Amino acid sequence: MADAVTLRDTGYSLSEAAVLSNPWVSTATLPDVLARPAVLTAPGEALSTATRRVVIRNGPMPPSLLKSVQGVVELLALPAGWNSYSAKPIAPDNAIRAIRLLAELLEPQTPPPAVVPTVRGGIQLEWHTNGINIEIYIDSPEDVRFFAEDIESGEVAEEPLAGHENTLRLWVQRVSGK
Fold first, then answer.
1. Which of 14, 17, 63, 91 has the fewest CB atoms within 10 Å, measured from its CB?
2. Residues 110-120: what's their mean pLDDT?
3. Range of the domain at 63
4. Domain count, the chain
5. What gap in Å lies between CA 156 and CA 151, rounded to an integer?
């Protein structure tokens, strides 16, 4: 069963169009260890339509996923120099990696992360909730790392994502109140 949601038309730029119309946004090719929903754009829809449909397969969509995807897509509209200096525009590959990672991590009770652009064209996902701080840095699809800390206990983790996916999932569950 697939749920469909609609993203409002924001006057998609070419970068946004590349992300929203490309089938490789799908998480279906990733290992499905936790039977996470697959995210892909609806086939055959032109970006000239007033809305963009995002189809979630293999389960219900966490409420925070739509908000997070919208945040990632909005970053693609940032031009070069968006910070009044020499910031690079957000790389579409980084946006796709962020969407895929969010689809894997977000549970129904997980609050949406703050979605923040980086000056080098990357994306940072942040949670500062329930005494837990998590920051995920996506500098390229292959260069993803995270920092997590529990303010109360002082526990800290700082790792590349590759090989530490379960560690990050456990930290996100803690933000979710689990």
1. 14
2. 95
3. 2-175
4. 1
5. 9
